[in-house]
Specification:
493 residues; 18 helices
Length: 493
């Protein structure tokens, strides 16, 4: 036996098995493990709470308790947490720190030991572009796989899941290593410049493969028909159920649930859910961010190396060029070229350009004027005096037209009257103005309990509504209007 630090250190990851409130901790870790088996590695606090209270045993479980339990599991290193700042819309949401949680490797092994399953298979962390291509080729065979024999379909399904598991686990481990403290410290050293280009090229090759395959895989997944999936799930369940097991009893429902969960994880990884970004997009953003950070660190290191360089020759060259200037104006122009403009003024306006060509210079366009106003608090535009205009003729003309329109409307409405009654269901084609008058009369009458009112010229009328709730159609010049059948009855004059 060799006594090492790993052998003698305390395993805090097993604390949740014997701590107080062990039922809550065990329940939470079992939820994470079951989702881990379905390839759903990251969960939010709301997801954990919803699955906990779904069990009758935890019906009195509260959100505050869930938050405290998750915090303790993170402290015991059972869960790995990362703050999700992708969808933050306010400072308050950023302060509340919405986290995503994932099981640590130790916790997976502990849960597997507790339920007596085989050990976790761990590979070295890497980003393999070929995995994306293999996943794409396997998904292309999905329609064919639904018609194969159960053993052939299961082999295809197993290959697809193994490639997806390797892709998911490897990228998480690799990205976590690049975002670790050791990698951060190494990027700030001069030795980082030696293999920086090789590392960036490696990441860019993976990003290119992700761009080529992720979109194609997403489109194919969205076009998969449910009947193909049902055929595949049924053959996978049939084959797995036929495998003899010595110490465990697995039902078809359990196999079907696990198979569907793995398919949903693959679908959500590439296609995402409504309102949430898919994991492929998050991996793309994370990889690009690492490339940008490495490039920035390399630039800073290069600048530090050249910070103390002797620029005496450069200054002497600039001084020589200045001495060759013919006059002061030429020296000013050279100064603007070397040192930049001394006093820069930006004028921004809503100008209409004659062309949108990027090769066109501003000096080739027509000049335009900008009116500048004093920037003082009490500034007002100078008012201009104007004479009063006589609108009496316009008012008289408007009054005359209004009276004529009222007379015309009255004549049109009287033409609809039969024996002091207007049946809405028997009207001919009417104008929009006449329709507006009739609907106004009906509205005024229905506001009263006895359904009676007066017109503008003083005539009393009553609105009768059919008890059979029969509908009628009023034909108008601008369309048809459907309403309950009514009759407007005028009283004796």
């Amino acid at each position: 036996m060799q006594t090492t630090e790993k052998l003698t250190k305390k395993l805090t990851e097993t604390t949740y098995l014997t701590a107080d409130n062990v039922d809550r901790y065990r329940g939470i870790m079992r939820i994470f493990y079951e989702n881990y088996e379905k390839l759903k590695y990251w969960l939010y606090q709301e997801d954990v709470y919803g699955l906990m209270v779904a069990d009758e045993y935890f019906k009195d479980y509260r959100m505050e308790q869930c938050q405290q339990d998750l915090a303790m599991l993170v402290e015991w290193k059972n869960l790995i947490t990362i703050q999700d700042t992708k969808k933050v819309a306010s400072i308050e949401e950023f302060k509340n720190k919405k986290f995503r949680y994932q099981m640590s490797d130790y916790s997976v092994e502990i849960e597997r030991l507790v339920i007596r399953l085989e050990n976790l298979y761990i590979e070295g962390a890497s980003l393999e572009p070929t995995l994306l291509e293999r996943i794409r080729r396997n998904i292309e065979k999905l329609k064919e796989a639904s018609m194969w024999k159960p053993d052939e379909t299961y082999t295809w399904w197993d290959d697809l899941n193994n490639d997806f598991i390797r892709l998911n686990q490897n990228y998480q481990d690799y990205i976590r290593d690049l975002n670790g403290i050791k990698a951060e410290e190494m990027m700030k050293t001069k030795e980082f410049l030696i293999f920086k280009d090789k590392l960036i090229e490696y990441l860019r090759n993976f990003v290119k493969s992700l761009q080529r395959n992720a979109g194609v895989i997403e489109e194919m997944l969205r076009e998969v028909k449910p009947e193909f999936l049902d055929e595949i799930f049924g053959k996978v369940v049939e084959y797995e159920s036929s495998i003899p097991r010595m110490d465990t009893e697995v039902t078809g429902e359990m196999i079907l649930e696990k198979t569907k969960g793995r398919w949903e994880s693959i679908f959500h990884w590439f296609a995402g859910t409504e309102g949430q970004e898919n994991e492929a997009g998050k991996l793309f953003d994370a990889t690009n961010e690492i490339i940008r950070r490495m490039t920035r660190y390399a630039t800073q290191i290069s600048e530090l190396n050249t910070l103390g360089a002797n620029r005496r020759e450069e200054y002497a060259k600039v001084a020589t060029v200045f001495m060759k200037c013919q006059d002061l104006q030429e020296a000013h122009r050279l100064s603007a070229m070397v040192f930049g403009i001394e006093e820069l003024i930006h004028l921004k306006g809503d100008a209409v350009r004659e062309t949108d060509s990027m090769n066109s210079s501003v000096y080739e366009e027509q000049p335009y004027e900008i009116e500048l106003k004093p920037r003082i608090r009490y500034y007002q535009d100078k008012s201009r005096r104007s004479s009063m205009r006589d609108y009496s003729k316009d008012k008289e003309e408007m009054r005359r037209r209004t009276v004529e329109e009222i007379k015309e409307d009255r004549i049109k409405v009287l033409a609809l009257e039969r024996d002091q009654r207007i049946h809405l269901g028997e009207l001919p084609v009417i104008s929009p103005r006449v329709r507006h008058i009739l609907l106004g009369w009906i509205s005024n009458a229905l506001e009263n309990a006895d359904h009676s009112a007066r017109t503008d010229d003083g005539r009393e009328y009553l609105v009768e509504i059919s008890d059979s709730k029969k509908k009628c159609v009023i034909h108008c010049e601008d369309g048809n209007f459907t309403m309950p059948e009514m009759v407007i009855v005028f009283k004796d004059r």
